[in-house]
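Exercise 7.
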Amino acid sequence: MADATGEGRLADALRAAEAVLAAAGVPSPRVDAELLAAHLLGIGRGELQAAVILGKAAPSGLAALVARRATRVPLQHLTGSAPFRGLELAVGPGVFVPRPETEQVAQAAIDAAAQVLAATGQVLVVDLCTGSGAIALAVSHEVPGAVVHAVELDAAAHAWAERNVRDLAPAGAGAPADVVLHRADARTALGELDGTVDVVVANPPYVPPGAVPVDPEVADHDPAVALYGLGGDGLEVPRGIVRAAARLLRPGGLLVLEHAEVQDAAARAMVDETGAFTPATTGRDLTGRARMVLARRSVGAFGADDARSAADVEHSPS
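Solution. The predicted structure, written as tokens, is:
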């Protein structure tokens, strides 16, 4: 029986929502139904389960949100946020929704940054193609004291990153902001930092032009500028990022670059061909899929007596 809102009991509304989403091909219909209901109620999923047990009424507007989700509008666009390593990032049309697999890319950058900070008392990280600011903000939160520069060229994505940096970046302790956002071309940005950066991390566009994503949430809603890496292999933009990293990194500094699971050999070759790095290795995500290329800037690129040489923080990037 429906209540005054027309939505009925929460348990019944969730079952109905799950059926609608399953019929629409949504991969996780029950989870999405619960997250939409929790969003409308302003509670977490755990509290939602308690509300179901207590026989609470469904929130007004749930059916309308479910109908939009059934058209494959991304869940994150409907709730306005996406989780990333414990952070809740504001996202919506015009910005790439951060994926769980990118959390391991961030982990590699976080681990390297933490080691440099412990060894030297300071660390400088650059996040190229920052999108929503996910990786930059994760590094800033998990490596207190790190100075992070985040670069994004696209105006819409930069606006989302600006919002997230404003709302989520930790306050600097007597120093400039922990996350400094730049609207610029990642391939040419931050020339003033050349040869001084400890970690360059990037999740650039890398999808080949002909490889249209299967999921409508990606194909129809993620911005093309964040997906397609140009060139026949989708790696033209990543090649520009690698060249930028070679310029920015100090000797021994680490490059962490996300790629598709089928691009591991090509990504290693792309890095090795520059002659600017130690032999590249492949990092994997939590499912074991090849997900990132890692390499250290060759020692001697900016002088053998660099005060923060590779010897200060030598360790395997993998």
